[in-house]
Amino acid sequence: MPAKKTPRYLRRESRAVCTCCGSSLASGTIKRTLGLSYSSWGNERSITLDDLHTGRFRWACDRCLKEGLALPANPVKQLYCDHEPYLAYCDWKHACRSCKRSFIFTAAEQKHWYETLGFWVQSVPVRCPDCRKQLRRRKALNTELGELLKLKDPDASSLFRISAIYRVMGNEAKAKRYERLAKKIAT
Ligand SMILES: [Zn+2]
Ligand SMILES: [Zn+2]
């Protein structure tokens, strides 16, 4: 009788821990995750114990899923190629690249990013919501400024607006210059 093959995860160290609570894998606590289908280089596959033991997947134990600490993920709806899909989402603490404060990328936000908006699974927010908002606002102002500066014969209100945008951007010299121009036209 041939010797029973040792499962791969017993042959080397297992890295299977719940992404959410950090508990290591115990039988019977991952029923909701095993069997989830995902595709690997175009082949339809389902999650096995071996997959979890590689430590490459982000998954959550049944208890975390049941208690709502983690949200179940649907790999079929995610966009991935050379990264593993999410099997569960769990609140995730990041440090903002701009203000350095830590912020939470919530499980619900993650599900929205990867399953509704269709972002690649490896993309993560590098800035906190406040800084992201500020950045979007700055970009919008930059675009508006570019359009205003293209005007061949700007009227007073356009010049006042240019001045105001420069002021928000911290360029006081230009803000003053355009304000003077605006006032000249207005009078
Ligand atoms: Zn857990
Ligand atoms: Zn920030």
DSSP strand count: 6
Multimeric status of the protein: single chain
How many separate helices? 7
Computed structural class: alpha+beta
Strands of the largest sheet, in order across it? 1-2
Report the β-strand fraction as a percent range.
5-15%
Q: Percent helix among the residues?
A: 25-40%
Task: Please report the distance between the alpha carbons of the first and last residues.
Answer: 102 Å
The biggest sheet amounts to: 2 strands, antiparallel
User: What is the residue-mean pLDDT, rounded to a whole number?
Assistant: 90
Envelope shape = elongated
Query: What is the total number of structural domains?
Result: 2
What does the model show?
The structure is a single chain. This protein has helices at residues 8-11, 49-53, 62-66, 107-116, 129-150, 156-168, 172-186, and strands at residues 37-40, 43-46, 70-72, 88-90, 92-95, 102-105. By secondary structure, it is of the alpha+beta class. The chain has two domains: 8-126, no CATH class; 130-186, no CATH class. β1 (37-40) and β2 form a beta hairpin. 22% of the residues are buried. The site of one zinc ion has 8 residues, from α3. Residues 96, 98-99, 101, 127-128, 130-131 line the site of one zinc ion (ZN).
